[in-house]
Amino acid sequence: METTVDPEASSAPVEPAEEPEKPEDEDEERDGVRLRYGSTLGGGIIKSPTGTGGVFAWTGRIGLQINHTLGLYYQNTPMLTLTPESTSNSAGFDAGFIDYNSLLASLTVFHVLDFGAGPSMDYVAVASCSAEYAGIESDAGCASTSGWYFGAHARGALLLGGLSGDGPRRSGFALAAELHPVFMPEATTFTFTIGLGGEWY
């Protein structure tokens, strides 16, 4: 029995199978410019020309996250300070209000390590109260000063979160450590604080 072959079928070209599209990089799809903001509550120490004391601070941040790695934001840090003072014939304290206004460029590594640094314009107001005593006589009083000074700010944070949603937004808890010198006429004052807060970046 003979088998017949259709000449048209044998001469028809065979189309190659289409290659499946390669999925785009998911990280690139979720990257992009977006609003960045966050806040931290914490405390630490202050080292001033008059001594060493404690600080209680809150920080708020707002700016732009350019991509997953680079960002630029403004950070405001109001804080209360208390520095005790004592000598052989006097006792007192310095109570202060400080407001840091910092512009920080940030670098984020592996989505969880965030480093920022930049210049700052700082408002410092201090009330110094003391009591001097010599024998049965004593003298007590308070004096206050305030002014604007240049400073610098450095911030490092561990961001416990990750990518969320379908867009570039990341969020998480922030465990931060911050160092800030204020360049005052008498001497440079340093504050070091640690805090816990939230970050949307």
Descriptive keywords:
mainly beta, Porin, 8 strands, 201 residues
What would you say this structure looks like, in words?
The chain is mainly beta and about 200 residues long. The chain has helices at about 5-10, 25-30; strands spanning about 35-50, 50-65, 70-85, 90-110, 115-135, 135-165, 170-185, 190-200. Strands 1-2-3-4-5-6-7-8 form an eight-stranded antiparallel β-barrel. The radius of gyration is 30 Å and the shape is elongated. The mean pLDDT is about 85.
Q: What is the SS-derived class?
A: mainly beta
Using only CA atoms, what is the Rg? 30 Å
Report the sheet-strand fraction. over 45%
Distance between the terminal alpha carbons, to the nearest Å?
Answer: 77 Å
CATH class value of one domain? Mainly Beta
The CATH architecture of one domain comes to: Beta Barrel
Order of helices and strands: HHEEEEEEEE
Number of helices: 2
Ranges with pLDDT <50 over ≥5 residues? none
Mean pLDDT: 83
Major sheet size, sense and barrel closure? 8 strands, antiparallel, barrel
Helical percentage: under 10%
How many E strands? 8
- The side-by-side strand order for the widest beta sheet comes to 1-2-3-4-5-6-7-8
CATH topology of one domain: Porin
- From the spread of the alpha carbons, the general shape counts as elongated
